[in-house]
């Protein structure tokens, strides 16, 4: 190794020694390769994986590689700053024994869930029967994190939620923006940062002529017919999926991904997750490195020399800690997602590591009013055996009834005669995270009963459609005789609210050099699916931080 390379690596706090230690966990997985788990580190992984050294000093450390983290990494790197990202999940660039990186939706295995021995599928039942099954415990892609009143689904790995989400890339209506982020300049967002985010994410619209006849969107056309017959606006929604690839899937000329129903456990081909957009660009600068299977456990002011001491657990694919590391960073960006960032900060404040944090930390958390339901259609309204996992449209009753319902797929591979919906509603309730000294954990005081408001708002759409169509709700998807999926959210938001727990640009009150860049800044509701707003807000905040704090 040349001196230049050595120096380069040291300055980023990364070495090949670290890399060898880091891949041990991946190689160890060969023993369970028959279960679909990655058998060995690929050449691609070997080229990009790197693990931070114990004792390293870095100019910038970013916790998490989701939307907020990826934007931060790219823009800082483009401004000439060396960046190290720390991600508790896996790299997701190595195929398993079935030749695929991600497990199929209908055949979950260890890759599917974060450290569970049994799946916890959002739809727990089908035709009344429970569908969860045993799986090997593994650092899989989807975390179903359980709090007392709600299960919060989140992506784990390089790309965060972009690995598991539906790719619906929705910019809120301009007239609703001030209810989402009241302290942010609306013109600046809609003229500069939303366009920048949409471009960075690769957001495009489905070709509606193709959509009108595609087999895989029969379910969506049935959804449109029912919405329009009841007088509701049916709106097409942009996505980050590669539509030309999906056309080829439908035509049968390429391996199928969305058309094969892949979504919750990762998408093997057509979806432009952050790995293919922001993170690819960030890596291409040569200034960004990522430590995977590394979980930040503490951040506190460094005893000497300025900056922050960051404690990190390196874990293996069983979730066991194999090394603990302490590094120093001049600046730390929290981008661990609404739940990850808020849990960390609440604990660090309560345990005295960051005592000066604002008393607003932990407050203002919401679930974007998520509630699910299915409707049972008549036999003449078949929704199709083949359903693309990528939603294309929604029913907009936000102004009149407080609900925006995504016409969602139910990709079971059989005809179900069901229409399925994920509604985003104007649920007014906000929960708080607090530190529980007895358990050492951070609790959330969300109450399932609060979802009744969301159910009422969703009913403003579906009661009317059912009446018009002479149809009923499905009662077999979330338990026995249970209509509403009111036990979960895909869209955690808030906990470290902008201009309350931070200043108006995500700088944490009380500590210079600590920033929050993710969904925890948005106070509980985005009026639509949230990742475009998370991305645009991160673009806005990092722009300011690069000029004002880094002088670049
Ligand atoms: P996020 O993407 O969650 O990234 C945080 C990252 O930090 C993760 O990779 C974590 O593993 C990592 N992390 C956490 N704690 C630590 C730690 N202590 N140390 C190191 N790393 C850590 O955050 N949104 C839409 O707009 N459209 C959709 O169609 C859509 N569909 C969804 C479907 C599903 C099933 C799910 C789960 C979510 C969906 N979402 C959708 C929500 C969207 O993915 C989510 O709002 C964003 O991913 C949140 O972005 P953040 O940057 O806040």
How are the SSEs ordered, and which strands pair?
Elements lengths: L2 H9 L2 E2 H13 L14 H6 L2 E2 L4 E7 L3 H12 L4 E4 L38 E2 L2 E2 L11 E5 L4 E5 L21 H4 L5 H16 L6 H6 L4 H12 L4 E3 L6 H9 L26 H7 L3 E4 L2 E8 L6 E8 L5 E14 L2 H14 L20 E6 L16 E5 H4 L1 E6 L9 E8 L7 E4 L4 E4 L6 H19 L2 E2 L14 E2 L24 E3 L14 H18 L4
Parallel strand pairs: 3-4, 3-13, 4-10, 8-21, 13-22
Antiparallel strand pairs: 1-2, 5-6, 7-8, 9-15, 11-12, 12-13, 14-17, 14-20, 15-16, 16-17, 18-19
Helix pairs in contact: 4-10, 4-14, 6-14
Flavin-N7 protonated-adenine dinucleotide binds next to helix 4, strand 8, strand 11, helix 11 and helix 14.
Description:
Pathway: Steroid metabolism; cholesterol degradation. Pfam families: FAD_binding_3, GMC_oxred_C, GMC_oxred_C_1st. This protein is an alpha+beta fold. The chain has a single domain (3-548), classed as FAD/NAD(P)-binding domain. It contains 14 helices and 22 strands. It has helices spanning 3-11, 16-28, 43-48, 67-78, 177-180, 186-201, 208-213, 218-229, 243-251, 278-284, 337-350, 398-401, 451-469, 531-548, and strands spanning 14-15, 51-52, 57-63, 83-86, 125-126, 129-130, 142-146, 151-155, 234-236, 288-291, 294-301, 308-315, 321-334, 371-376, 393-397, 403-408, 418-425, 433-436, 441-444, 472-473, 488-489, 514-516. Strands 3, 4, 10, 11, 12, 13 and 22 form a seven-stranded mixed β-sheet that branches. Strands 9-15-16-17-14-20 form a six-stranded antiparallel β-sheet. The protein has a three-stranded mixed β-sheet with strand order 7-8-21, with no helix packed on it. α4 packs parallel to α14 (531-548) and α6 (186-201) packs across α14. It is globular. Bound molecules: flavin-N7 protonated-adenine dinucleotide (FAE). Residues 63-68, 86-89, 153-157, 160-161, 164-168, 264, 295-296, 335-338, 340, 344, 490-491, 518-519, 529-531, 534 line the site of flavin-N7 protonated-adenine dinucleotide (FAE).
């Amino acid at each position: 190794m040349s001196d230049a390379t050595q120096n380069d690596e040291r300055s980023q706090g990364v070495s090949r020694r670290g890399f060898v230690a880091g891949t041990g966990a991946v190689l160890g997985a060969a023993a369970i390769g028959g279960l679909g788990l990655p058998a060995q580190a690929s050449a691609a992984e070997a080229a990009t994986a790197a693990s931070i050294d114990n004792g390293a000093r870095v100019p910038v450390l970013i916790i998490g590689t989701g939307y907020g983290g990826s934007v931060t990494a790219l823009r800082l790197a483009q401004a000439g700053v060396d960046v190290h990202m720390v991600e508790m999940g896996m790299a997701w660039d190595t195929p398993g024994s079935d030749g695929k990186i991600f497990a199929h939706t209908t055949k979950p295995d260890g890759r599917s869930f974060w450290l569970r021995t049994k799946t916890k599928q959002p739809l727990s039942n089908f035709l009344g029967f429970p569908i969860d099954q045993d799986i090997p415990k593994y650092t899989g892609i989807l975390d179903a994190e359980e709090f007392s009143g709600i299960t919060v689904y989140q992506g784990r790995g390089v790309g965060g939620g972009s690995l598991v989400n539906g790719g619906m890339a929705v910019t809120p209506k301009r007239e609703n923006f001030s209810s989402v982020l009241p302290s942010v300049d609306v013109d600046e967002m809609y003229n500069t940062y939303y366009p920048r985010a949409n471009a960075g994410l690769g957001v495009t619209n489905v070709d509606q002529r193709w959509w009108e006849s595609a087999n895989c969107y029969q379910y969506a056309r049935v959804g449109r017919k029912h919405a329009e017959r009841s007088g509701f606006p049916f709106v097409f929604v942009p996505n980050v999926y590669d539509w030309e690839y999906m056309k080829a899937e439908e035509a049968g000329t390429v391996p199928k991904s969305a058309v094969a129903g892949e979504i919750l456990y990762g998408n093997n081909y057509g979806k432009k997750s952050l790995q293919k957009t922001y993170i690819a660009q960030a890596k291409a600068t040569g200034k960004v490195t990522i430590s995977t299977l590394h979980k930040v456990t503490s951040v506190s002011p460094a005893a000497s020399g300025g900056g922050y001491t960051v404690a990190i657990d390196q874990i293996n694919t069983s979730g066991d800690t194999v090394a603990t590391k302490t590094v120093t960073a001049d600046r730390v960006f929290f981008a661990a997602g609404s739940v990850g960032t808020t849990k960390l900060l609440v604990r660090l404040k309560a345990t005295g590591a960051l005592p000066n944090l604002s008393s607003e930390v932990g407050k203002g958390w919401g679930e974007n009013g998520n509630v699910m339901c299915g409707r049972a259609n008549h036999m003449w309204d078949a929704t199709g055996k083949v359903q693309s996992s990528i939603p294309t449209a929604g029913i907009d009753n936000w102004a009149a009834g407080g609900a925006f319902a995504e016409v969602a797929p139910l990709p079971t591979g059989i005809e179900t005669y069901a229409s399925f919906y994920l509604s985003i509603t104007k649920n007014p309730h906000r929960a708080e995270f607090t530190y529980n000294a007895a358990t050492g954990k951070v609790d959330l005081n969300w109450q399932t009963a609060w979802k009744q408001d969301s159910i009422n708002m969703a009913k403003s759409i579906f009661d009317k459609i059912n009446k018009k169509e002479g149809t009923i709700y499905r009662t077999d998807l979330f338990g026995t005789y249970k209509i509403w999926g009111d036990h979960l959210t895909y869209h955690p938001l808030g906990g470290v609210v902008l201009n309350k727990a931070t200043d108006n640009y995500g700088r944490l009150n009380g500590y210079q050099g600590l920033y929050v860049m993710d969904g925890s800044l948005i106070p509980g509701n985005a009026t639509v699916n949230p990742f475009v707003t998370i991305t645009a807000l991160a673009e806005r905040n990092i722009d300011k931080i690069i000029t004002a704090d880094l002088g670049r």
